[in-house]
Each structure stands twice: as C-alpha cells, then as structure tokens.
Amino acid sequence: MRVGQLALDTAFRGLRPDGDVTATLTAPDGSRLQVWQQDDWRYLQVFTTPIFPRGGGLGTAVAIEPMTAPPDALNSGDDLIWLEPGESYEGRWGLRYLAS
C-alpha cells in the first residue's frame, strides 16, 4: 500500500526481525529503505502525516521509531529494561538505503 494512502500513528509489537530487517519502505522507482534493529528491539512506532513542509508546499512523510518497549511502558512496566546503579545497556538499530 502506498504511504500517501495511510493514516498511521501505530505501534507494532512482538517483532522478530528477518535477519536484522524489521521493516522496508519501497519507493515507486524501486529504491528501498530498510529499518533494522537488534532482537531486543521488538517494537516499532510508525507515524504518517500528509502535512509535512516541503519546498513550495506540503507533502507526505513517514516517521519510524524502533523501540525496546511499548508505548506507555513507563506506566505499565511492560518490557522495560531495568538497570541497577553502575549497569549499562547498549542497543543498536539503523537504516539501510538500497538504490533501485
């Protein structure tokens, strides 16, 4: 489905990356943007807007936010990564552009 046809402010949960790829956006020319994230990043927030400022007017935009916990996790406690004093956490996610 085309991004311009979607109205999303949606959290996707329980993701299991295929390799490391969680989501792929494909442009009309065949180029692709892949979102990759480590296994412990099992959530993805996707937001679309048709009123993103562009040169000379408005256009459609999509925002993708990899997450380790679901929305409202600070209240629910679901899937929070708890750290004791002196502990640390490192996680990785990123974007990969593939030209057509």
Shape: globular
What oligomerization state is this entry in?
single chain
Order of strands in the sheet with the most strands? 1-4-5
Q: Got a strand count? A: 6
Question: What sequence of helices (H) and strands (E) makes up the elements?
Answer: EEEEEHE
Q: What is the overall number of helices?
A: 1
Average pLDDT taken over every residue = 89
Count of domain modules? 1
Share of helical residues: under 10%
Measured on Cα atoms, how large is the radius of gyration? 16 Å
Low-pLDDT runs of 5+ residues are none
Helix-strand makeup class: mainly beta
For the biggest sheet, the summary is: 3 strands, antiparallel
State which percent range the strand residues make up: over 45%
Q: Please give the alpha-carbon distance between the first and last residues.
A: 19 Å
What is the secondary structure topology, with strand pairs?
Layout: E1 9-12, E2 21-26, E3 32-37, E4 43-54, E5 57-67, H1 73-76, E6 93-98
Antiparallel strand pairs: 1-4, 2-3, 3-6, 4-5
Report what the structure shows.
This is Aldose 1-epimerase. InterPro entries: Gal_mutarotase_sf_dom, GH-type_carb-bd. With 100 residues, the protein is mainly beta. Helices cover 4% and strands 45% of the residues. The strands form 2 sheets. Strands 1-4-5 form a 3-stranded antiparallel sheet, with no helix packed on it. A 3-stranded antiparallel sheet has the order 2-3-6, with no helix packed on it. The chain is globular, with a radius of gyration of 16 Å.
